Every structure is written in C-alpha cells, then in structure tokens.
Amino acid sequence: MYSKSYDQTEDMISQHKILTHLARLYEEEVQPITTKTYKLINAENMKKAHAAVLIIAFIQTLM
Known about the structure:
The chain is mainly α. The chain contains three helices and no strands. The chain is elongated and about 50 Å long.
C-alpha cells in the first residue's frame, strides 16, 4: 500500500488523496450504517445494503 512513498514515485500525492477519500467515506458513510435501516425489502434496498457491507469489509482490511 505504501510502495509509492517507499519508491519515492512522482505521483505520491495520489496515495494521500486515496487515503483521505477512504477516511471521509469511513466517517460519513460507514459509521452511520450501524443505525441504517431499510424499511422495504426489495432489490434496490438489498443492493444498497450489500454495497454498504462491502465498503465496511474493504475498509476493515485496510486497518
């Protein structure tokens, strides 16, 4: 994950941007999901819930 800084590549700022974006997603999207409810069980809400779970799982692998 930190190969850009290790190798001192020219696009090291992109790593900062990615990590900042992930931090914002975690703070604004993932944390509130624990209290998120979907009143109707339908395909659209199932897709939303599944996407939220995948985001949480991905971010947890980074920690």
